[in-house]
Amino acid sequence: MDQASPQSEPLFLSEAPEPEPIRLRTLVLLRWFAIVGQLATVIVAWAMGIGFAIGPVLALIAAAVLMNLWLVLGPARRSSTPHAFGQLTFDLIQISALMALTGGLSNPFALLVLAPVTVAATSLDNRQTLMLGVATVVLISIASVVALPLRDANGTQLLMEPVLAIGHWVALVIGVAFFAGYARRVTAELGATSRALFASQMALAREQRLQHLGGVVAAAAHEMGTPLATIKLIAGELADELKDRPDLYADANALRESAERCGQILRGMGRAGKEDLHLRSAPLRAVLEDAAGPHADRGPVVEILAEGPDVRRDPAVIHALRNLIQNAVDFAQSRVVIEADSGSEFVTVTIRDDGPGYSPALLARIGDPFLTSRRTGAQRNGYEGMGLGLFIAKTLLERSGARLTFANGGPGALVTVRWPLDRIRADTRAALGQNPNLEK
């Protein structure tokens, strides 16, 4: 699975659950917090003797309370993107109106007008976020022009110097772009990671289904053996009784031979299925050959230099190693070398190619989903990659207890995977059964 070029996502990623818009319960909870904060600010300002249009301010706060009560007590509804956009627009208008009634840009709490667009950036699409951002800038500008000034206890207007007011307006406009852009970027990266994890789970589930298919085949062969034996017996008896009728005898004999043939096929399938079912461990070289198999005929020579102990035949490990090998084959010029070394404490697998290697600027970030990780080149034809990069391999191998390092020096890319021996070595000891009952 190469991440050297951000390719189109695999088909099964279209099955990944799309992130839902922000839930109504969350919007309601955030608004309750805002209402409590607004009421607390009004009470403190009133206690300090600050003069402002307290009636209209309380009316705006009451409007927010009524909106929340309508959402809580009204008919149950499912959150949708247009509805979330409407609720955030309501919050923006309410906060901007409060800002205009309480001094405009001179109000130290004016920065709270950035909250709706920031929330929108985490849950709505780009178009709606942009619309709310533009609306925020427009409403900030209007509120700064038509703002009613605050007054202290002596009735003196609390005004801000024009230069400071312009600076505050510019800061709020920059804040709209910065907070919205930052929240959007973080949300996009979290979404990419979520989709990549979903792809990892799907790929691993597919490998596990293939591994357990042998058990299903063995069970099917066992269950179908009895009815086939009955068919064979009845067909034989019919053939014996119909020897004086050549046409019917031939049909009965053909039926018996077909039943025998089915029995032979099922016995072969049953043996193969049992072998697959019981193949829980394999030599290290066999595991590497299994992982490299799909890429053996894609152009570069894949050379395996490995001798080691029997290891667990884990579908996740095989799938992850296959991803790393694919990445090497995709960018190798002519040769990929897979080496393995086992000691008394660790088992180490090294995969190197003679391609362009990783970009030095991105080495520290390798393993992030959808990251461009090679200097030049596109994926080699002949294999349909998932476009998720080394993220899947890194995630699966680290879950198996391995540590991964990425470097240049093969002369191309160099990947080292190291497991503690007790995490990867197969346990060949069989559990003892129950002691026989020797009592007579």
TrEMBL record:
InterPro entries: 2C_sensor_his_kinase, HATPase_C_sf, HATPase_dom, His_kinase_dom, HisK_dim/P_dom, HisK_dim/P_sf, RegB, Sig_transdc_His_kin-like_C. It is found in: Cell membrane. One of its GO terms (cellular component) is plasma membrane. It holds the Pfam family HATPase_c. Keywords: ATP-binding, Cell membrane, Kinase, Membrane, Nucleotide-binding, Phosphoprotein, Transferase, Transmembrane, Transmembrane helix. It comes from the Bacteria. The chain crosses the membrane at residues 28-47, 53-74, 95-117, 129-150, 162-183. SMART domains: HATPase_c, HisKA. GO terms for molecular function: ATP binding; phosphorelay sensor kinase activity. The keyword rRNA-binding does not apply. Its EC number is 2.7.13.3. Residues 219-423 form the Histidine kinase domain. It is a multi-pass membrane protein. It catalyses: ATP + protein L-histidine = ADP + protein N-phospho-L-histidine. This is histidine kinase. It comes from Paracoccus caeni.
